[in-house]
Amino acid sequence: MYLEYYGLTEPPFDITPNPRFLFYSAKHREAFNHVLYGIRERKGFVQLTGEVGAGKTTLCRAMLEQLDGHYSTALILNPALNPDQLMKAITTEFGLPIYQLGLDRLDSLAMFNEFLLRQVDQGRETVLIIDEAQDLPDEMLEQVRLLSNLETDDRKLLQIVLMGQTELRDRLNQHAMRQLRQRITVRYHLNPLSRQEVNHYVEHRLHVSGANGTPYFTRPALWRVYNYSKGIPRLVNAICDKALLAGYVRQTRKIGYNTVGTAIRELEGEIHS
Known about the structure:
The chain has about 270 residues and is α/β, with parallel strands linked by helices. The chain folds into 2 domains: about 5-15 and about 195-265, Helicase, Ruva Protein, domain 3, CATH 1.10.8; about 25-190, P-loop containing nucleotide triphosphate hydrolases (Rossmann fold, 3-Layer(aba) Sandwich). The protein is built from 13 helices and 5 strands. It has helices spanning about 5, 25-40, 55-65, 85-95, 100, 105-120, 140-145, 165-170, 180, 195-210, 220-230, 235-250, 255-265; strands spanning about 45-50, 70-75, 125-130, 160-165, 185-190. Helix 7 links the parallel strand 3 (about 125-130) and strand 4 (about 160-165). Helix 11 crosses helix 12, helix 11 (about 220-230) runs parallel beside helix 13 (about 255-265) and helix 12 (about 235-250) crosses helix 13 (about 255-265). The protein is elongated, with a radius of gyration of 22 Å.
């Protein structure tokens, strides 16, 4: 609705994980490099955690774009499955006809192992990424650990990336999870953006959306965005989108402190139409 008014070509604060909009703060760049290093160096297990809305999924999609044709990848977005369903979801993502053949978990695992060995023969690496991994019950985490046992004498056949909220880190630090934790050799926790980074984040997304360099948000407005969002990118997006809409309704090209306040009250449900 407000795109033409502000001279934008696409919504700047959409909450979908579009890698074109990824803002490489120092934290996000470091997280990106950690995950990519763990995959390329065949470390077996990589762990990426962060608060809800910190940008993990967007970062993951950007990382997948960096992997060339030597990698076969599978991304599991909803791991709240039972063991049989998870195995079928993984093999299906890699293009194996498990459902059509009606195989059980053991037969599926055997077919998956053969697939991994073929990948090695073809000079390809296989990467499994599980998002929202904090939702995996202990039984499922154990199954994922067992998948890491698929190996030859000199290499791991499968690289596994576990991504999740802070609760995943806390669970893996428990004594009962020590077998899995000891296998994770690369880990990174993605912290929220700083106040200055939020300013640059907003400018970056506006620029990608076609902004002509005009500072749509005043400094006090950006301070209020940070103060409410605490540096969580998804919340920054939600506030700024509402603020631009409020600015359009008011027919103002400058988003000030009070306009952001209106956006926050709308998000909190304090303004009703």
